[in-house]
Amino acid sequence: MINTSLILDTRKLRVNRLKHLIGEGWHLRPAGGATGEAYIAEQGEQKIFIKRNSSPFLAVLSAEGIVPKLLWTKRLESGDVITAQRWVNGRELKSFDMNDDRIARLLGKIHRSKELLEMFRRLGNKPLTPERLLAGLNEQAGEMQHEDPAVTEAMNWLGENLDDVRTEQYVVCHSDVNHNNWIVSEEDSLYLIDWDGANVADPALDLSALLYLYIPEDEWKTWLDAYGVTLTPDLIKRMSWYMLAQSIESVVWHGSREQIAEYTKWHALLKEVLQKVNVKMN
Predict the structure, then answer these.
(1) How far is CA 244 from CA 92, 249, 270, in A?
(2) What pLDDT, on a 0 to 100 scale, did the predictor assign at position 17?
(3) Domain extents for the chain?
(4) How far is 10 from 178, CA to CA, in rounded Å?
(5) Distance (Å, rounded) from C-alpha 214 to C-alpha 254?
(6) Burial track 171-180 (b if 16+ CB lie within 10 A, e otherwise)
(7) Which sequence positions are flagged as catalytic?
(8) In what order do the strands lie in the sheet with 90-92?
């Protein structure tokens, strides 16, 4: 049984430590998010975004203009790292915004950043290869991969086509390019936020989710031109592979939590991608 009072006491202690760290006169409130580690700090007209244990390469992301400006970083005695970023007044993008050329160009800039890749490698992160991803899916899917025909078929297809999606091209992938993680400031600056799940991987990992979820297929070529690559049969197959993998992961995740609406959405996408790859294969 979860001890909710202990969780609340722990969070209160963290907030008190943060208040002591940033100084008197600041008001803290939760900024939302899955981790509960992000806060908005306000003092008069000043406003900053505070986060505990953010991405270790936040400084590089800030320097390249990919995230809002990093103001300071402080390490606590506990080893936790607290970061403060400039608060951006703006809005999250909607699904219909994702066909903007600026999104394609910014994602292309991220994937081509040698500084980001070098920083990630210095931290000892190993590439998320197709083999590693498939092994993880086998563990996550459990009995579902035998009981659900669509998941069974998709898992078999991933294994059968593993040799065709190996690549020497590894980049820093955000790994969650959902429209909610893209924001536009009042000054019309575009940012991609929430880098906690980033990986070194095939760029098709990010491209598959963005294109399959938001861009009509007849516009993929134009979008990828702005991103900086040519749409080829090889890229289509890699994107299909990663989209199937991400769909299985989402079906398992939402199914295990009985989140019916999300489970149904991802299961429909899983079958849609399966149908497309089967048509192309035949």
Answers:
(1) 26, 9, 6
(2) 66
(3) 4-87, 92-281
(4) 30
(5) 20
(6) bbbbbbbbbe
(7) 176
(8) 90-92, 182-185, 190-192
The 10s digit of each residue's pLDDT in 195-214 is 989 999 999 999 999 999 99
DSSP state of 93: P
Q: 4-87 has which fold?
A: Phosphorylase Kinase; domain 1 (3.30.200)
Write down the CATH superfamily of domain 92-281. Answer: Aminoglycoside phosphotransferase (APH), C-terminal lobe (3.90.1200.10)
pTM of the model: 0.87
Burial 195-232 (b: 16+ CB within 10 A, else e): beebbbbbbbbbbbbbbbebbeeeebeebbebbeeebe
pLDDT tens-place string over residues 6-53 = 333 445 556 566 666 676 678 888 876 555 578 888 888 888 998 887
